[in-house]
## 1
Amino acid sequence: MIGRLRGVLLEKKPPQLLIDVAGVGYEVNAPMSTFYQLPETGSDVVLHTHLVVREDNQSLYGFASLRERQLFRSLIKISGIGARMALTILSGSSPEEFAQHVVNQDTKALTRLPGIGKKTAERLIIEMRDKLDSHTTGQNHDLTNSVTGLPMQDPIQEAVSALIALGYKAPDASLMIQNIEDKMAMRSEELIRKALQSAGTPIQ
């Protein structure tokens, strides 16, 4: 099991990262909550990781904090909640916010996330109630580190692609980005944050 990566951040294309670790490039899927804390490309970065192994695929997931990884691991144990949906949940709420939704039995807040219907929201509330304490304490690990980077891709295209990867339909994702004011001056992470907020998804 790969539990931690430390290397140079080569690419940021939400929801995927490319990290160079001693000459080996690792493709890592990460929630937007982690993307918001990443340094510029070309900088050192540390991620807590989880490896998902299937017969036809191996996927590595990375998180800014142990809390996020722990919540991810709890979520994918729930019937009907795969890794992609777990990333969507973490992209739309912090561990503390998710725990609050569960405590308040707030199915409405959970169903704002793409791909989560009422029945799935109810199942999340039932199965996560006894696991809340481990997701409401602890500190985030800061990923800050400096400086220069590689050429940026088109932020608008990156943002639309990220929303599609999080479960939104392509026309809806494009419309969410188009409705953002001053979008031409924003980075992809900022565009994604505002798009999720406009959809009613709380973001830290």
## 2
Amino acid sequence: MKFITKRIHAFLDYPVAIALIILPFVLGLGTSNPIALYLSVATGIAAFVLTVLTDHHLGLVKVLSYKLHLTVDFLVAIVFILAPFILSFKGIDAYYYWANGIAVLAVVSLHKSEEVSVAALA
């Protein structure tokens, strides 16, 4: 059952990007590896820019396709899931990335395709 529309996804993008920038400081990430702090902040900044540039109703410049946006989200989810293993994150550092990676993967997986109706083409 896929229920996350392009519109819902757009409303999630900005708060998630801001959370990726702020939460590492609030949670004290970086105890097992300093990269745990910086990876989230850098990803949050990139996610904010990606959202600004995406062709959806909350995009401000609309130069990147929504399909590309979803592909980038999928790749970020995979990186977040694998990062604790590759970079030896432990404890809260690892749990933070696994939780975020699984959440992003769920959002992308539950994305509802936007179908074009015959009436819209007429």
## 3
Amino acid sequence: MNLLHVVQHTSADYLGLMEDHLEGRRIRFSYFRPFTEKGEIPQAGEFCDGLVLLGGGPWGSAGGRDVPTLDEEIALTRTMLDQGIPVVGIGLGAQILAIAAGGGSEPSGLAFEVGYARRLRDDALGGFLPERFPSVCYMRDRPLPPERAQVLAEDEAGRPAVFQVECGRPARRRAVAAALRPGRAPFGPAERLQRLQIMVREIEDALVPIMTGIIKVTGWMQMRRRIPLKLT
């Protein structure tokens, strides 16, 4: 069974519906909660088959209100990319992945947006990314994918909603950043909360092909020899 390390930034952001898709494929995952009293991020040298960086709610990465473990997580993510180990980033996690891959992040106020994203490539996520799918954002700041990234989908404002970065030497694995699902619904405008409630079933349905695509491009169903991480 493959093992994923999952970094959680707030108690409200967790794998949620993604847990069922991973467990159904016999992919194990272990949470790391650096915001707790004795919490920490994964350490170099620990065996794993992938890293998932979850959202951060009010935390960002562009200097206004950075998550306290930002530097450590960027360093860890760079190590993963150098080793060719798949990384999935959601929300704040997508910002950290973008920075580690050679891109960046830009300041933006805390936003709660409920809408749809549009696929840009027919072969996105191995052909499994839906042509149109729900995009829910509760996030401070925004990722700036590196030039070498492939933008797979954009939101209603024309911003990257899903992007993919080849990684490793040679590039045999992929890092994927995506806004896949919300955490617990934040307090906010009633109209958006109502729209989110209406879209819950649609989000669940869209997650089926999206997770199939994520598993395909990361290779998390493949058994492989594990290697220790080394900081360079």
